[in-house]
């Protein structure tokens, strides 16, 4: 099943190269898929991705900025966590969109191969709880299809005081109430 999934992902990526200049149909790439799908190799084009903060709060916003020496024609930017692509990218303009490859909005790509200027900022809204470390990954296509760069990862950490992602505050309250009642029961039984 894993081989079939890999082949389908590769074919979808080839379709991007051969017939679709309006955004990546995949939610993540690596050096091998970029090399086989785009040609060329990972080249230091000078693009850099940075975040305005090293931590995030539940439902808070992180601003990611792409900067570099020149324009770019394509981008794939995604969030990665133990929960998969997570959070929501706000689309900054008509030149970017969320691809349809994933049910989340934790991925962003381009809408055309027209040149786009840098610096450009992308807003990402965190999930409603601490999902642990979130790694932002990006692939940028420079001036031509075969000139591309896999950017250095940007990692932001969750705020420890936030509830765990996927655990509602009512669940946390019930767990805490249960703990308090259990401790009270143990203390009462020891004193009797």
UniProtKB/TrEMBL annotation:
Localization (cell): Secreted
Top-level division of the source organism's lineage: Eukaryota
Primary location: secreted
Keyword field contains Phosphoprotein: no
InterPro entries the UniProt entry points to: Ferric-chelate_Red/DefProt, Reeler_dom, Reeler_sf
Signal peptide: 1-23
Domain annotation Reelin: ranges: 43-148
Keyword line: Antibiotic, Antimicrobial, Immunity, Innate immunity, Secreted, Signal
Pfam families on file: Reeler (PF02014)
One example of a Gene Ontology biological process annotation: immune system process
GO cellular component: extracellular region; membrane
Stated family: Belongs to the insect defense protein family.
UniProt-recorded name of the protein: Reelin domain-containing protein
């Amino acid at each position: 099943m894993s081989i079939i999934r890999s082949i389908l992902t590769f074919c979808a990526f080839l379709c991007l190269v051969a017939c679709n200049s309006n955004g990546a149909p995949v939610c993540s790439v690596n050096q091998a898929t970029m090399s086989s799908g785009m040609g060329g190799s990972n080249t230091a084009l000078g693009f850099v991705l940075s975040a305005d903060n090293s931590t995030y709060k539940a439902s808070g916003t992180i601003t990611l900025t792409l900067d570099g020496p020149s324009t770019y024609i394509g981008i794939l930017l995604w969030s990665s966590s133990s929960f998969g692509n997570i959070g929501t990218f706000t689309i900054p303009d008509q030149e970017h969109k969320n691809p349809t490859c994933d049910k989340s909005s934790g991925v962003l790509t381009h809408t055309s191969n027209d040149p786009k200027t840098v610096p450009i900022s992308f807003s990402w809204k965190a999930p409603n709880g601490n999902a642990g470390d979130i790694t932002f990954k990006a692939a940028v296509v420079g001036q031509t299809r075969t000139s591309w760069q896999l950017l250095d990862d940007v990692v932001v950490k969750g705020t420890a005081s936030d509830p765990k992602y996927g655990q509602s505050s009512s669940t946390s309250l019930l767990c805490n109430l249960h703990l308090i009642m259990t401790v009270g029961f143990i203390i009462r039984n020891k004193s009797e």
